[in-house]
């Protein structure tokens, strides 16, 4: 049986096995501010989602990751649905996420109702990466 809960300090070691982009200090903020979730199956954490606020007002999923042995089983979809419902309950009408154009996640996001919303290309040598695609989803009418 699985459940989703807010990230806690006790999740630190697990969190950093999946998320190597988040600085330690930012993890502490995610715990403090409740801006991260852990998906637990049979008492073992298997996935995570973290977010921030784009323009200080629009929830923006900055990381969704399910451990490799638990992928392709609907857990990512469950985490996104949980987060979307939470954001709707907090009064938000729109959510966002992004992924690089060379990653498969773009197909997943479209499949669960996200629409393409443009891209960002950074060519500064130290920060260069493939184009980042942005996606939005309106929450209006959902979870009624």
Automatic annotation (TrEMBL):
Gene3D superfamilies: 3.40.630.30
Residues of the N-acetyltransferase domain: 2-136
InterPro entries (alphabetical): Acyl_CoA_acyltransferase (IPR016181), GNAT_dom (IPR000182)
Protein name: GNAT family N-acetyltransferase
Taxonomic placement: Bacteria, Bacillati, Bacillota, Bacilli, Lactobacillales
